[in-house]
Structures are given as C-alpha cells and as structure tokens.
Here is the input.
Amino acid sequence: MKRVDYYRIDLKQIPRKYRCSEKLPVTRASPLKLRKEVERFAIYFQREFEYPVQEFTAKEKRPYTAYLLSESKRRVWIGACCFRPQSGVSALDRETLRWIWLHPYYRMKGVLTGAWTKLRADHGDFLVEPPFSPAMRHFLLKHNSSSEFYSFYRNVG
Ligand SMILES: CC(C)(COP(=O)(O)OP(=O)(O)OC[C@H]1O[C@@H](n2cnc3c(N)ncnc32)[C@H](O)[C@@H]1OP(=O)(O)O)[C@@H](O)C(=O)NCCC(=O)NCCS
Here is the structure.
C-alpha cells in the first residue's frame, strides 16, 4: 500500500444552534459531538508539534473547560483550547491553559487577542503551560504583561 506522508486538516461546519458564540464552552457534560470536535483539534495540535501525547480525548473523565473557537462569520470551527484545574508541569494549584490550536489560515488575525479579555475574565490570571511555541511566547510577552506569570514567560522558552 502507498505510504501517505501528509495530513489533512478538516474544519467542520458549525450546526446552526451553536452559532451564537465565537467561543463555545465544552465540558465533560457537553454532547459527545462537541467533545469530538475538541479532540480533532487536539490531534492537529499533537501532529503539528510532534508531541508524544494527545492532550485531550473526547471520552476522558478528567475535569476541563475547553472552548471551540469559530471565525467571525461563525460558519466553521477553526480551533480549540483547553483549561484544566491544575498545572500539569508544576505544583501550582491554579487553573491553567494547557493547549490552544488554530487552523493556520486563521492565525495572526486577532482571534486569540479577541478572546483573551474574556478568557482572563472567566479564568482569572491563569498560567499558560509551557513549552511555548514562538507564536505563543510572542503573544504572552506582548499581550499579557499584567499577569503575575509575566516574568516566568520571559524566562521560559
Ligand atoms: C499561538 C496562537 C494561538 C496565537 O493566536 P492568534 O489568533 O494567531 O494570535 P493573534 O492574531 O490574536 O495575536 C497576534 C499576536 O500574537 C503574537 N504572534 C502570533 N503568532 C505569531 C507568530 N507566528 N510570530 C510572532 N508572533 C506571533 C504577536 O505578538 C501578535 O501580536 P501583534 O499582532 O500585535 O504583533 C496561534 O498562532 C496558534 O494556534 N498557533 C499554533 C498552535 C500554537 O502555537 N499553540 C500554542 C502552543 S504553546
């Protein structure tokens, strides 16, 4: 059989009833099809960064608050992010942003900047978990200077 050396990135059309929000919360109690959408983006994230672990699965039982992110016309979901109640890398007992991934076409267009104020309002001064992509590090240094973790972001690659 022919070896396939590439991956597709599929984006799903948003069902009409979920088009009311640019940032749809998804928890363990959400319908499976929403959790599967978050899982799809966790897989894209894992593939892009060649992580050894998949950060999220649709049927997992650990607590989380994830979000499905849409483009401004709310036709398709373009990415996701996921918070968990504690850090995975330190003893910090604080909600942390574990991962975020946006489709490449929708990067550098202000999506995260637009969502950031509300994320900070809903989740407080959360830690963003390293390791950081260069894009995420730039974002944190430019747009998150009020955070108590700012010096940490400056010193961690
Ligand atoms: C990181 C990511 C979530 C940023 O979201 P975004 O919607 O593209 O970011 P925004 O357009 O809102 O913000 C842009 C700011 O972030 C920084 N930034 C984003 N991408 C950047 C890049 N490729 N290079 C340098 N800076 C970048 C800049 O500081 C920029 O500020 P400016 O526009 O004022 O110069 C998105 O690029 C992404 O999903 N990347 C792939 C996955 C990833 O890196 N996840 C984080 C793992 S730690």
